[in-house]
Structures are given as C-alpha cells and as structure tokens.
Specification:
Length: 461
Amino acid sequence: MRRLRPMTVRARATLGASSVVAIALAIAALSLLGLLDANLLHNAESDAEAQATGVAQLAQEGRLTPLLPPTHGADFLQVVAADGTVLSASQNLTGRPAIVDRRPSTPGTIFSTWDIGPLGEEHRQRVVQVTTETGGGLVTVYAGTSLRDFDAADATTTTALVVGMPLLLLTVAAVTWWVTGRALRPVEAIRAEVAAISDRDLHRRVPVPQTHDEVARLAVTMNATLDRLDASGRRQRQFIADASHELRSPITVLRTQLEVALAVRDPAAWPELIGGALEDTDRLQQLAADLLLLARIDAAEPLPARPVDLTELVGEAVAKRRGDRLPVHAELTPGVRVAGSGLWLTRVVTNLLDNAQRFAEREVTVQLRTVEDGRLAVLEVTDDGPGIPPADRERVFERFTRLDDARSRDHGGAGLGLAIARDLAVHHGGTLTAEPAERGARLVVSLPIHLPADESACPSR
C-alpha cells in the first residue's frame, strides 16, 4: 500500500481533487435519480388516482357503463364487484377477468398502490385501487398508468450520468494535474537552486516568481534565510580572521620574551622578562575567555529565568572598582529587578566600567533608574573622555573594533568588551546604545523590568 501511495504533491493533489469530485458526483447522481423517480412516480399516481376516484363516484351514483371511455392519465380502467365479477372496463381490458384475485372485504375506501406485470405492453404499469361501498355491495376500481415515460427518463438519465461522470472526472483530474504542475514549477526551481547552493555559493539566490502568492513568499523567505546565512558566514570568517590576528600578536610577543629570557644569562633581568611574559599570558587568557563567551552567546544558550536585583548587582560591581585609577560615582534607584543571569549581567556592567575607565579623564558616572511607568530599567555609564564620534556610535559595538587602535592596545583592549556587552544585553531582551553626551561617552543599557507576579515561580538571585 505504501508503494501504491502517490509520493508527489502533484499526484496527491490530483488524486484528492478527483476523489472529492467523484464522491460529489456520485451523491449528486443518486440524488438526481431519486428526485426524478419520485417526481415521475408521483405524477403517474396522481393521474391514476384521479381517474379511479372519478369512476368510483360513478359507481356510487349507479351511472356506471360496461365500457369506460379512454381518459387522460390512465391507460386502463376496470371495475370489479365483491364476487369477482367485472362490472366495467376500458376497451383494452374488455372481456378479461379481474386483474387481481384478492378481494377487499372491508367497507369504505382503500387506496393502495403496487406494481403489476405488463398487460399486453412492454412497460410496467402503476395501478391505483380504490374500494368503495355502493348499493350492490363493495366495488373496487383499478386504474393503471404506464411507466414508459418513467422508465425512459430513468434510462436516459442513467446513461447520461454513466457516460458524463467519467468524462467530467477525467477533465477534473487533467485540469488539476496541469494547474498543480504550473503552481509547483516555481517550487521545483527553488528546490533545484537551493540544492545547487553549497557553503561557497551562499551569494546565490532562488528565483522569485511574479505571482505574489504563497510560493513567491516562500522564495522571498528563502532568500532572506540565505542572506542571513551569507551574513553569518561572513561574520564567522571575519571573526576567525580577527581572532587569529588578535591571538597572533600576544603569542608573538610572548615567544619573543621567552626567547630573550632563555638567551639572557643575567638573572637580574629575568624578573622583568618573566613579568612581561605573564602580562601577555593574562592578555591571552582574557582574550580566550572573551572568545568563548562570544561563542556561547552566538549559540543562543537559553537564559535562566531568575529575578536579579539589578540595583544590588550594579552596586557590588561599583564597590569593587574602588581601586581603579578614577573614582566611580553611582546614582542607583533601589529595588530595580530584571530577569536573567546575574553572572552575565555583571559582565555587562563590568565591561562598560572597564571601557569608561579606559578613556575617562577625571571621573566615571553610573546611573540606574526606571522609565515607562516602571516597565523598563535604564543603566547609564558616562565618562568624561574624548567621547565617540556620531559616525562611530554603532561601529564601536562591532567585534575587534578600535576607534584608536594604538591607544586601545596601550590600554589593553582587544575590541571585544562593548561587543560582548551589547550581545549580552540583547540576549536579555534589552538594548545597548551609545547616546550623545555633552562631554565624553554615554552608554545606555535598557532592560525589561522583572514583574513581581513571576517571582513565585522563580527563586531570587
């Protein structure tokens, strides 16, 4: 059965449409034949009943004649007494015995209808029996009408349906096959193009049909997916190149220092050489940790849905910066809570403070408040350094980006701090932007407030 099942969408659509039409045609044909038969039979019975009732009225009045004249609506008439004597009949039944052996025994009028065999004709007859009481006893009137029109109409309709239904069904199947093929032709073109695209051909795009339908939207969506894959591939290659470049410099310096330390025989110079090597080792370790964190963020690891007291978290991060070269002034609104990872949010605050300390001249300011009726937490970190040019306010969040490469290297930056901070903020459903400031740089983090109703399901930080 599985082998016989149609495998293509085109075949399944054709089979489904043909099956539905076949069922609908069968129901319509049966309904049509039933209605036609019922209507013709009702007309025949009505005519015969009217004639039988009229003859029965004549019998009651004693005006019955031996020969009944032909009338419209009845092919034959016969009047039979209770003892089986034929009292009157139409010309085609003259001299014939009663057409029915059974005699009604109940006075009154009885209407009954049944089929009898042909009376010298090749068509069936529908007979109406009317029994009535007269002065001479019970009299039964039989009126029959031919069903030739009924049989002819039934045969003609049946023949037309037997011939027309398969033709209509074949027409529906052919049209469905053709229309489905035309509709799926762009899908096949899309499939063939996607199958031909390799990891080195992500610049290629699938054709978009001019139909403005679901297939066209599928092609647009597919091209958008390819755009994202292409951009992701380019970012990955650029990231690998930048990471290789960033790792190469400290490794080269470390190797040089170790070679010098190995070559120098003076023990007095060893502490300075070893100290420099340790500094480059720390730089390598920090860079490796940042790269690992970026990889985890790119992997879209799910966040723990725990409430975090952002006020307490920022306060602790600021308190740990008391030994920095410049003071940090904090203005924190109490009780600001967000949902997410306390460890990652601490990293956001730490990276912003590191960046501010790197470029500030006299002080760093941290502000935490709520906006939009308490639905949004806003954290601002401001320094009084050289600031960020308007054209570079988005570029500073790109990975391995330094606005002043030489100065950044002197300050120990690898160009990953702000990129990591933005990625972590976005991962928490928030944003990180560089906003205009009167002097220096102003970095603003916006995070959705954790609703108190959710705390029942989540433990506190």
